[in-house]
């Protein structure tokens, strides 16, 4: 059982998934908040039933799954709706993630959480790792990847903690503005550090 937890975070488009996958290639279990967030709103789950009761059936796709883009629209336009949704889902997500960390078999486990600091989830981990890039690169990568407008990306970045705030809170920082080969070296160095920390904790 992995008892040492690293919280991996980074803004949209920063490359935290790439970093997480390199750790996974080194044999480390990943517990991904985005995946868990989907699991807690599967059809017939308590999470989805509560969302339908609140927003009505307009929030469902024809196959009974959650219409994410519709939900995103509703909560980005209205802060109170966003708060309501967070209050519902965060405890469910937190509980599920901790359970998955407990069941992990690797020497340490990586919890991948986009809003690690914003949602106070850094309190659940032993150490935090931030994947950092400039806001300009963040915008460019996200627009290229998700086919969204620059304004939409700016809104998302604006709803997250500032770069300075995240940098001040993170224990470790990976600068992801270079080549993938450089990134792999950085991850390998941190992997060695984390193995050491986990074995001595």
From TrEMBL:
Ligand binding (ATP): 13-18
Pathway linked to the protein: Cofactor biosynthesis; coenzyme A biosynthesis; CoA from (R)-pantothenate: step 5/5
Molecular function terms from GO: ATP binding; dephospho-CoA kinase activity
EC number assigned by the record: 2.7.1.24
Subcellular locations according to the entry: Cytoplasm
Predominant location: cytoplasm
Recorded GO CC terms: cytoplasm
GO biological process terms, semicolon-separated: coenzyme A biosynthetic process
Domain of life: Bacteria
Keyword ATP-binding: yes
Protein keywords: ATP-binding, Coenzyme A biosynthesis, Cytoplasm, Kinase, Nucleotide-binding, Transferase
EC category: transferase
One Pfam family from the record: CoaE
InterPro entries in alphabetical order: Depp_CoAkinase, P-loop_NTPase
Family to which the UniProt record says this protein belongs: Belongs to the CoaE family.
Protein name, entry field: Dephospho-CoA kinase
Organism: Shewanella pneumatophori
Gene designation: coaE
């Amino acid at each position: 059982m992995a008892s040492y937890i690293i919280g991996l975070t980074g803004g949209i488009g920063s490359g935290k998934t790439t970093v997480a996958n390199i750790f996974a290639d080194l044999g480390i279990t990943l517990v991904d908040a985005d995946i868990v967030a989907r699991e807690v709103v599967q059809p017939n789950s308590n999470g989805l039933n509560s969302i339908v009761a609140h927003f009505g059936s307009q929030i469902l796709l024809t196959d009974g799954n959650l219409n994410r883009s519709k939900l995103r629209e509703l909560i980005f336009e209205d802060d109170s709706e966003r708060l309501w949704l967070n209050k519902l889902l965060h405890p469910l997500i937190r509980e599920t993630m901790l359970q998955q960390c407990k069941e992990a078999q690797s020497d340490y486990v990586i919890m991948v959480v986009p809003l690690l600091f914003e949602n106070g989830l850094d309190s659940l981990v032993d150490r935090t790792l931030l994947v950092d890039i400039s806001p300009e690169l963040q915008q460019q990568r996200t627009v290229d990847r998700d086919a969204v407008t620059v304004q939409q990306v700016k809104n998302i970045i604006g709803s997250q903690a500032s770069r300075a705030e995240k940098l001040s809170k993170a224990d470790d920082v990976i600068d992801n503005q270079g080549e993938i080969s450089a990134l792999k070296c950085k991850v390998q160095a941190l992997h060695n550090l984390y193995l050491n920390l986990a074995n001595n904790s």
